[in-house]
Amino acid sequence: MIDFLLTSDAIMALLTLTFLEIILGIDNIVFISIAANKLPEHQQSKATTIGLLLAMVQRIILLFFVTFLIGLKEPFYTIELSWLHVAVSWQAIILFGGGLFLIYKSTSEIHEKVESPKHDEDELKGKKIKSLSQAIVQIILIDFIFSIDSILTAVGMTNGLHPNHNYNLVLMIIAVVISIFVMIGFANPIRRFINEHPSMQLLGLAFLILIGFMLITEAAHLSHTKLFGNEVGAIPKGYLYFAIAFSLFVEFLSFRIEKKKKKE
C-alpha cells in the first residue's frame, strides 16, 4: 500500500484530485456559509465545521458504494451488431453514465455562472432556517448534490491506477479528507480568492469536461467496444495531468501579469 502511495502516478493523482476537490468545493462553501449565516453568530462557525465534516463522511460512504459498483467487471449483456460490439458491465455503465453526468453538469454550471452567477445563492437566501439542526440538514442536502460530481471526478482520476480497487479507494479517501480539512481551515480565504479570480472555478469546470470525456472512453475501452472493427482505446491519464498542469501554469502567469499591472 505505502509503495503504491509513493509512486509518481499516485502522488500526481492525489495532488490533482485534491486541487480539483477544493475548486469544486467552492460552491459548497458558498452555500454552507449562506445557510450558516442565518443562524445566531455564536452558532455560525459550529454549523460550518459540522457541515463540512458530515460532508466528508457522506463522500467517503458514497466512495465505498461507487467503488463497489465499479468492481463489478463481468459483462452481463453483449451487444453484437455488424458495426458495433459492446460487452456491457456495471463498471462500464457507471463510468459511462458518470462521464455523461460530468459533461452535462459542467457545461450547465459554466452557462449558469456566465448568465446568472447569483441565481442559486439568491434562491437559498430565500429559505428560512430557524435552528442549528435545520441548518445542518440543509447543508447535508446541498453537499449531497455537490458530492456526485466530486465522487465521479475522484473515480475518473484514480480508476486504473492500480489493479486493486482498494488501493485506489484509499487514495480517493485521502484526497477527500485533505480537501475537506483545507476547506474547514481556509473556507473564507479560498472563497475570497475565487471571487477575485473566477477564472479558476471555470478552469476547474473545464477540467471536469475533460474527465467526463475520459470516463466515457474508459467505459468503452473496458467493455471492449468495437466500432466498425476498431476497438476504442483508453486515454492515458498523463495527457490529462499535462493539460491541467499547463492550464494552471498559464493561469499563474496571468495572475503575475495582472498583479504587476496593479502595482504599476
Automatic annotation (TrEMBL):
Pfam families: TerC. It comes from the Bacteria. One of its GO terms (cellular component) is membrane. Keywords: Membrane, Transmembrane, Transmembrane helix. It is found in: Membrane. It is a multi-pass membrane protein. The chain crosses the membrane at residues 12-36, 48-71, 83-104, 135-157, 169-190, 202-219, 239-257. The keyword Lipid biosynthesis does not apply. Belongs to the TerC family. This is TerC family protein.
